[in-house]
């Protein structure tokens, strides 16, 4: 089986990008260890702090953020980073051709129930000159690489450098990532959806109508039965979509009028959208293609509908697209 380093060597990447992806992969091995030790390492529970978005930080949010930050600072190819757990962008130095955005531990509320969590990352080109938040505000289409690491029964890395999506599994014996699924393709059609149904009354009419028609099953306008799944960690739900298709959405809602969207554009929606498009799927807000959005802030949130291409198209029809 091909190792990650063999894959990176033959993928015709710049040596700098290959080195950065190796740094991210190596850091994820350390995170995987920390996650796996759990209570034995005293890493569960809350840190007693809040992130810039007012969410309570878990100890592991802080620990994994620091692990990635330290690894990227030592890498030498990264000028600055933006993280879910950092209020502002962190400038690492005046050298390096990349900017990295990451969610160090996605789905961290799952940590205390020993369920799926992951790391999501997005690599953008660094513009020349001084780096500020403005430097990060590039459409997701500019990403030179994106991926996630899922800390599940096995630790898996999903990676795209804009030439398809590859899935690697961490071999616990050799400590190497091995290529286990080459050229992932999301089936165009599906009979599975993922949404937090408890927010139903807060959705727009378009989403209300779409889901109502799905759950009517064979007797409804779709003429087939749909199954539902919700892992409450975007990495877990997107991994299922990459593995067997499906539609995942965290739509607009009015639950908290100050917060109409939940998922963050720069380090959740964009990297997942690139993976999904590269695997033949689609990713939209309901109105706009995620990867074409011009970001205005590093922590901005966005509605997300992604997955099997034909099913996303059906959902977009309900949105008048
Ligand atoms: O990062 C935000 C997140 O944890 C996603 O990973 C996940 O899809 C979603 O929020 C879960 O939301 P909820 O708590 O509404 O189920
Ligand atoms: Mn997250």
UniProtKB/TrEMBL annotation:
Q: Any idea which positions bind substrate?
A: 106-109, 196, 262
Molecular function GO labels: fructose 1,6-bisphosphate 1-phosphatase activity; magnesium ion binding
What pathway annotation does it carry?
Carbohydrate biosynthesis
Question: Which residues belong to any copy of the Fructose-1-6-bisphosphatase class I N-terminal domain?
Answer: 9-180
Q: What class of enzyme is it?
A: hydrolase
- Cofactor(s) for this protein? Mg(2+)
Which residues does the annotation say bind Mg(2+) 2? 103, 106, 268
Domain of life here? Answer: Bacteria
Q: What EC number(s) does its UniProt record assign? A: 3.1.3.11
Q: Which reaction does it catalyse?
A: beta-D-fructose 1,6-bisphosphate + H2O = beta-D-fructose 6-phosphate + phosphate
Q: The Fructose-1-6-bisphosphatase class 1 C-terminal domain covers which part of the protein?
A: 186-318
Asked if the keyword Isomerase belongs to this entry, the reply reads no
Q: Provide GO CC annotations from the record.
A: cytosol
Gene Ontology terms describing biological process: fructose 1,6-bisphosphate metabolic process; fructose 6-phosphate metabolic process; fructose metabolic process; gluconeogenesis; sucrose biosynthetic process
Family membership, please give it. Belongs to the FBPase class 1 family.
NCBIfam families, alphabetically? Answer: PRK09293.1-3 (NF006779), PRK09293.1-4 (NF006780)
Protein name as catalogued = Fructose-1,6-bisphosphatase class 1
């Amino acid at each position: 089986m091909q190792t990650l380093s063999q894959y990176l060597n033959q993928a015709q990447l710049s040596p700098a990008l290959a080195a950065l992806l190796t740094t991210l992969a190596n850091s994820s091995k350390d995170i995987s260890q920390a996650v796996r030790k759990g209570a034995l390492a005293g890493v569960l529970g809350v840190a007693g702090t809040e992130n810039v978005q007012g969410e309570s930080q878990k100890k592991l949010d802080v620990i994994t953020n620091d692990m990635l930050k330290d690894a990227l600072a030592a890498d030498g190819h990264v000028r600055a980073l933006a993280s879910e757990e950092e209020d502002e962008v962190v400038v690492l130095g005046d050298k390096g051709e990349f900017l990295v955005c990451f969610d160090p531990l996605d789905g961290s509320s799952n940590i205390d129930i020993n369920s799926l969590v992951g790391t999501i990352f997005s690599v953008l080109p660094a513009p020349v000159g001084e780096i500020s938040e403005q430097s990060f505000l590039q459409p997701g289409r500019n990403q030179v690489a994106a991926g996630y690491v899922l800390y599940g029964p096995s630790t898996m890395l999903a990676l795209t450098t804009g030439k398809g999506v590859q899935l690697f599994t961490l071999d616990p014996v050799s400590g190497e990532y091995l290529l286990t699924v080459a050229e992932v393709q999301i089936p165009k059609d599906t009979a599975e959806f993922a949404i937090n149904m408890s927010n139903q009354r807060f959705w727009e009419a378009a989403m209300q109508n779409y889901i109502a028609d799905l759950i009517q099953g064979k007797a409804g306008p779709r003429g087939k039965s749909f199954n539902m799944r919700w892992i409450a960690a975007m990495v877990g739900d997107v991994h299922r979509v990459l593995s067997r298709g499906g539609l995942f959405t965290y739509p607009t809602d009015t639950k908290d009028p100050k917060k109409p969207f939940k998922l963050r554009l720069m380090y959740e929606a964009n990297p997942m959208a690139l993976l999904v498009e590269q695997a033949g799927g689609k990713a939209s807000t309901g109105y706009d293609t995620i990867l074409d959005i011009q970001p205005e802030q590093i922590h901005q949130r966005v509605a997300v509908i992604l997955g099997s291409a034909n099913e996303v198209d059906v959902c977009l029809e309900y949105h008048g697209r």
